[in-house]
Amino acid sequence: MTILLYDLVPTDTQRPFSPHCWKAKMALAHKGLDYRAVPTRFTDVPKVEGGVSKTVPVIRDGERVVADSFAIALYLEDAYPERPTLFGGDGGKAMARFIERWSQTQLHPFLGSAALMEIYRLQDEENGVYFRESREERYGKTLEAVGAERDTHLAAFRKKLVPLRSMLEYQPFIGGERPLFADYIVFGALQWVRVTSTYEFLQSGDPILPWFERCLDLHGGVGRATPAAA
């Protein structure tokens, strides 16, 4: 049975952009599981599977409904143990949890604010109103004011990527010789900006870029199938 993935999209349903949905999508592809993405806009989320979650991703696998990207990865690992592992054991799960916290606290705040205005412009009128109201409440200032500050914070953001750059001197993926869910956590954050904005948050020649390109090509190029913003 095909798994359903509720996937956050703007007006253009071919441009899914949520970093968390990308984590789930890459996890499904890693496991080699058939799935169907269900395009879901911000204002659709409360209706997903009877309102099971305030956010997406949400998957339905037969009778099971699972929300939250990390919970989805854990579910897929347990439900399909015969397929390629997402974690490589309990240690990998613990490591991925650390990577998730690092990404959420060190990468997402800048990346989300850097692409904020572009994400807003991708929405239809109803979802644009929701996005503006919810994000301006979160940031305590207008979207325009948040977006105007991104160049000021860019250098500090790039410094936060030093651990990832250093690690990539030793191995091609965060997971080692092959990608694990930890890779998809960071990939989702960078893909978030790639598909919504032309903002150059990484410098040319940054060793993170070849890793990102490798991730885009994984699993038949599922990441690259969504084109970069132009």
From TrEMBL:
Residues 8-84 form the GST N-terminal domain. CDD domains: GST_C_etherase_LigE, GST_N_etherase_LigE. SUPFAM superfamilies: GST C-terminal domain-like, Thioredoxin-like. InterPro entries: Glutathione-S-Trfase_C_sf, Glutathione_S-Trfase_N, GST_UstS-like_C, Thioredoxin-like_sf. It holds the Pfam family GST_C_7. This is Glutathione S-transferase family protein.
